[in-house]
């Protein structure tokens, strides 16, 4: 009996968490569609080294036309039936108090993290439903469950993403599509250094103090490794989580427990 090769779309796959998620699926033998506005050469190398088929499709998730063209290309690649969508693409925004926040900064973060996720999901739902269903995994954040000073735009976008996750789970259950989310704490990738530096500058203190404070906020006393996030994504996209939809799993070293 021939086992069907799963097709997996990972947005924001050029680097960081998205790159690790793509590599993890590649090691399981999946076909990857790598979506990003940035070059994905490094991720392609990792995926192909694992012996997996990979395609790069440029996509600006904030542009409806770009997302539509992306969806058409994905349909060609997967033959009209998609197995997994991982909505990982997003931006951090700049660390700033609400009282100092330009409207453009707020709108850019919401447009990327929330509206962009909606646009990609809306475009690919027919492909996910085509062969009896599939899985959607949204990458949220630990701040989808708590406030964080200086990051109102990012926090609001991630709280809203959990609402979108739950609503999609209810809307798509009859199509056999499960929709879940992952809420990571600070993840040890290049991007976190920029986030901490932004906080340090906004708060007027050394970046080392920011790291120590954030590490101390986790009972495990450390940041999360990207492979730990990827493993939970793979679980939610597998049959092992077949009774789960509308859920958000914390990967925070114990920082968030509910």
Automatic annotation (TrEMBL):
A Pfam match: adh_short_C2
PROSITE patterns on file: ADH_SHORT
Family designation: Belongs to the short-chain dehydrogenases/reductases (SDR) family.
Gene3D superfamilies found in the cross-reference section: NAD(P)-binding Rossmann-like Domain
Record's protein name: SDR family oxidoreductase
Domain of life the protein comes from: Bacteria
């Amino acid at each position: 009996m021939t086992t069907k090769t799963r097709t997996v779309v990972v947005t924001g796959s050029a680097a960081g968490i998205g790159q690790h998620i793509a590599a993890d699926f590649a090691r399981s033998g999946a076909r990857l569609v790598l979506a990003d506005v940035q070059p994905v050469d490094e991720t392609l190398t990792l995926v192909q080294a694992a012996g997996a088929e990979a395609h790069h499709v440029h996509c600006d998730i904030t542009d409806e036309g770009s997302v539509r063209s992306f969806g058409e290309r994905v349909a060609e690649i997967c033959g009209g039936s998609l197995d997994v969508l991982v909505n990982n693409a997003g931006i951090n925004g700049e660390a700033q108090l609400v009282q100092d926040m330009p409207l453009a900064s707020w709108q850019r973060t919401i447009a990327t993290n929330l509206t962009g996720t909606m646009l990609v999901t809306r475009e690919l739902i027919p492909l996910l439903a085509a062969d009896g269903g599939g899985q959607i995994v949204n990458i949220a954040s630990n701040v989808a469950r708590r406030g964080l000073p200086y990051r109102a735009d990012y926090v609001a976008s991630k709280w809203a993403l959990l609402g979108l996750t739950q609503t999609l789970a209810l809307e798509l259950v009859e199509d056999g599509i499960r929709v879940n989310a992952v809420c990571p704490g600070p993840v040890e990738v290049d991007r976190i250094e920029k986030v901490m530096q932004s906080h340090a500058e906004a708060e007027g203190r050394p970046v080392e103090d920011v790291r120590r404070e954030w590490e101390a906020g986790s009972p495990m006393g450390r940041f999360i490794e990207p492979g730990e996030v990827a493993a939970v994504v793979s679980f939610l996209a597998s049959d092992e989580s077949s009774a789960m939809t509308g859920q958000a799993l914390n990967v925070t070293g114990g920082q968030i427990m509910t």
